[in-house]
Amino acid sequence: MNIRELTEEDYPRIFEIYSKSKLDELRFEKKTFKLLPLEDDEKRLSALKESKIYVFDDGNILGFGAIFGSEIRALFVCPSARGNGIGRKILEFLLSQICGKANLFVAKTNEPAKELYKAYGFEVSDEFLTEYNGESVYANEMVRIKGQY
């Protein structure tokens, strides 16, 4: 498998993938969001850095994911590499690192991501109002009981 732990040298590529991917998560919203680069987003960067971060690397980092306890905190794939199963491989790897129940958070309108998570046994457990770069957005918490998929 091409998944390994993040090294300090990987951060510039992680920031690049995030910048190319983050607004995709919000593309189904009725309003337009302005990108807040990860390196400038103290809240999200701090949460990411306290997590275990893994990269999908086949000679070039094409995606990354992060877990903190039982929470999947990040799953991003470079747009030019999508459709090749990289997101699924990262998700499966992250789930293999979690004992018991797993949870994650996703924009309520991001149906493609939610469909992927549902295929792995996740179900929407909550809806709440949050924000991204000062703009409000509804999100869902999704929960998976181990062994469901």
From TrEMBL:
One of its GO terms (molecular function) is acyltransferase activity, transferring groups other than amino-acyl groups. It is an enzyme of class 2 (transferase). Its EC number is 2.3.1.-. Gene3D superfamilies: 3.40.630.30. Coiled coil: none annotated. The keyword Transferase applies. Pfam families: Acetyltransf_7. Residues 1-144 form the N-acetyltransferase domain. Keywords: Acyltransferase, Transferase. This is GNAT family N-acetyltransferase. It comes from Pseudoalteromonas maricaloris.
